[in-house]
Design goal:
80 residues, mainly beta, 6-stranded antiparallel β-sheet, 1 helix, 6 strands
């Protein structure tokens, strides 16, 4: 099943915050279109950080509802 850029929520990654590596979610800020090729642009500021209160995946699902997480990209779930 192919995912579209309209369903893209953001990209998961790891960054160092106060000397500790943490999982974060960088939300999609927009789409650049260059020569007909669409390229997603992500915000440089993370939206969620994983603290000691559970995984980043559960925090994303609580905020957005049902999502598909494929490798490091997060998509809205269309169908059950």
């Amino acid at each position: 099943m192919r995912r579209s850029l309209e369903d893209l929520i953001g990209k998961k990654g790891t960054t160092t915050i106060e000397g500790i590596k943490q999982e974060v979610l960088f939300p999609k800020a927009g789409i650049y279109k260059i020569l007909g090729i669409k390229i997603p642009v992500y915000s440089p500021l993370p939206k969620f950080t994983r603290l000691n209160r559970g995984s980043i995946d559960s925090r994303i699902e609580n905020y957005y509802g049902k999502v598909d997480i494929i490798k490091n990209k997060v998509y809205k779930k269309k169908y059950e």
